[in-house]
Amino acid sequence: MIASRLPFEVIRQPSTMRAWAENLRRDGLRICVVPTMGYLHPGHLSLLRAGRARADVLIATIFVNPTQFGPNEDLAVYPRDEEGDIEKARECGVDLIFCPDVEAMYPQGYQSYVTVEELSRPLCGSARPGHFRGVATIVTKLFHITQPHIAIFGRKDYQQFAMIRQMSRDLDFGIEIVGMPIVREADGLAMSSRNAYLSAPERSAALCLYRGLKAAQARFHSGERDSLALLDAARQPIEDTELARIDYVDLRDATTLELVTSVSRPAVLAMAVFVGKTRLIDNAVLGID
Ligand code: PAF
Hints:
The protein has ten helices and nine strands. It is of the alpha/beta class.
């Protein structure tokens, strides 16, 4: 592996980014991309460090992708800090940052989208219609522009990771898709840019997601395999929390995301919960350590 030796660059034009990537590939360098929507937190930084260790050239992308937000969602207020992000990325050893504007990615007349059929349907797919079509489309575009050998995603967005891995296989992208563990605050809250929306009482209430996961994991480790019992354990701490409202809590096969009635293979316990107006997601895989 060659240590980072490129001049640090912030690139805004897709054509410029692609020309860089083509030259780097021509020079035989291995490229890793970490796609993000910015407002980088320690979870993102863990992805960047993982990428730094796996490739010659590390590219971070920062783009708040409008096509993955529904009409009543938080696109307009999604937290942004481009200057801070650039500094953090540079400190993690990122070589190139690609941060295009919306017109560069979706010019006038844009009309092509990517859909991953089955994996996009349940969970966040049914709660946020169109969301995964937007994610699959932008990730495909970012892959074409940055030409990576390897791409790194967080497993907090478990369904997103599963869908991108499937898409990459199905469409022969030839990119290694790596999923990294969830990074949590000291008290267990999964790190998320959306945590910035939480008031102090909501921040405490948000711990109910982690409590739910822990309760279900404890039941699983004591031998419970029945989905309904495990889901009850997961839901209880959330239902007991005044500021929290369940969007979904579901137990699904960890690979296919099909519903399971009993855990005999690895299964993902996935949840989306509104805490006040903020929708948070979290998950735990049962069946493997
Ligand atoms: O996980 C995210 O931040 C986004 O969904 C992604 C993968 C960068 C696509 O916009």
